[in-house]
Amino acid sequence: xxxxxxxxxxxxxxxxxxxxxxxxxxxxxxxxxxxxxxxxxxxxxxxxxxxxxxxxxxxxxxxxxxxxxxxxxxxxxxxxxxxxxxxxxxxxxxxxxxxxxxxxxxxxxxxxxxxxxxxxxxxxxxxxxxxxxxxxxxxxxxxxxxxx
Length: 148
Fold this sequence. Notes:
Elements (H helix, E strand, L loop, with lengths): L2 E5 L5 E5 L4 H12 L3 E7 L2 E6 L11 H11 L11 E4 L8 H23 L5 H20 L4
Antiparallel strand pairs: 1-2, 1-5, 3-4, 4-5
């Protein structure tokens, strides 16, 4: 069964069944992000569908997706991604299993860092961003590492 991922603003992920019908796909994306969606490309094999007006509507920053997009792009994005995000394959096809694992690993790494901050907050915003990005890169690279 083909599927896509929903990444909530708190970093939680849910695998969603991906309908064959293009209209149903559009409705699923719209329902997933909570409104009209913009499509963003940060990886050649994936699309991020983000709320078209998330920041203006004061949707929460999706830190996990910001880290994911930054890691995929290879730079620290100078802007945030807000609200729930749907992750699909190119041309809004199903997401490959290896990318599902990668998205989930990065989201889990971000959640782990944020949990650690409950006991020991970061020194400042810059070090916090650097720590999140390092954790995201490490999670991605661990999945790509060759096995013996």
